[in-house]
Amino acid sequence: xxxxxxxRRAFPVQGAVRPKPxxxxxxxxxxxxxxxxxxxxxxxxxxxxxxxxxVTRWREDATRDCWGQFIxxxxxxxxxxxxxxxxxLCRAIDEVAVCFHPDRAEFRRRDNDIETCLAICVAPDQxxxxxxxxxxxxxxxxxxxxxxxxxxxxxxxxxxDQAAPAFAKLFLETEFLxxxxxxxxxxxxxxxxxxxxxxxxxTAMDNPVSAEVEYETDRARFLGRGRTPANPAALDTxxxxxxxxxxxxxxxxxxxxxxxxxxxxxxxxxxxTGAAENHEGATTLAQHFRELDAASRAFDxxxxxxxxxxxxxxxxxxxxxxxxxLASAVVFTGPALRRPDANAANLQGQPxxxxxxxxxxxxxxLAIVATAGDEPxxxxxxxxxxxxxxxxxxxxxxxxxxxxxxxxxxxxTDLQASCGDLxxxxxxxxxxxxxxxIPKDDAVLLAAAARAVLGGGHGTLAEQLLxxxxxxxxxxxxxxxxxxxxxxxxxxxxVGKVREIHDDYHxxxxxxxxxxxxxxxxxxxxxxxxxxxxSRKTSRRARPVEAxxxxxxxxxxxxxxxxxxxxxxxxxxxxxxxxxxxLSLKQxxxxxxxxxxxxxxxxxxxxxxxxxxxxxxxxxxRQTRA
Length: 626
Hints:
about 625 residues; alpha+beta; Beta-galactosidase, Chain A, domain 5; 3 domains; disordered N terminus
């Protein structure tokens, strides 16, 4: 869903970096205290990690950018609903501003008379992130709001979670602590060598309307069937959070608090998410942030910690803005800084990197040194690599020196002195290679595997980040001739609008289409109507006699065999032979045993639908076969 282009005419902020609203990949900000790290995108999405574990679930998706921790706002006065960031509701905004500071990220918006500000930071003294929401009522009437947080709990390594997310969720349990009004989750160890991991989610506010805190940890109850964070069932009018905890199949963190604003009034509320090694640490963390003063103190400490870090690394706010742009190209794969010619010429796979001690599991940034003018860029990338590691971004920096002679050895000596032996040639560190000592195919592989290829005499880092990818020549669009010599199909299944197909029956399909099993694609909701055939005694328009609604779904691996979609005007139709095959799979008999046998035969080809396997009345079946 794409929101209307917002107005960016308000909220002046001093010393802030404003990310661009429309970029090929989302702009990001990296915040960390060395242990707990978060990545925030300009849309309000992002990830949270503690050590090498993802606290909240995140997937790389530059197109949707819909993973992260969100806060919904519902105006109880007029029923309006919005999210503080653009995600996940993606609705039009009257005024908006997104600002990235070295110590925090800020999202400001105004909806009619209500101004909302969300500030996000990582507490330097605690393994937690703080999201502080400030409301200002510029109107002349009192207002009342419900604030609802939402995020998916992960507490697992990202690669492990991506490999089997449903299996990883089985080891999570949730609990509600009535004292601080906090949610905690723990991951049970799968073996004797694993330790338990805990996460907390707590809220605090000034002048609460009520001490009651609504909570939810079951994702299915929060979203509802077939719905997403863009339209969750928990945000329906009059819906309350169910308070479900325990060994839920799909755990989330969701807390709801009520805020009341007088005309010209202001209110603040904080949502805190953190991680701990044991239950005692999680409880202590929840108790610490149950008061709003702890959240305000976290922002003061984050500001001082960021100033100290900039002095240590000799960086400015402009350097941080450039570093965040490069970080966005590493977090989200994009074509701007990649080498398409290397992708086409590459003949090797990931094992080709192993001979250089590069695993290929981490993102790679390749710096090519072609002349002495590229050496300042290399030193700047070394500073960026140190900054990114502090902010929780794990990557490999590869420096490929294409020169010959003493210049290669001199640059390697300088870099060894600057970064030390702890990072040189180690996972997540810096790799210095001489082009003359490696095969040309390996150099091509490095350029193809890198998410960003810099240097090579193309200017400074800031200049190269402004580079745009060359336009790709696309083949001409496929045109379908209306005057086709193919015979007119006798039986057609329509996916789209209601349409009379044949004298014997009608077929209708409507959205929304809800997958019934993981890994299956829904073809359509099919409504088969048996109608009276036309005759001289009946009217010209056939009348339906009987109608049934079924859902048809198909596995992706079987789609090529079973399905061929062709455009017809604005609708899409199913090939007649496929429909006949689906009909023949179902054995229609009066006996219930025969019906179950036919259903099992269909499941070998189709997934289990919501309202039954493609079932067609026997009389209709005989008519279609005739």
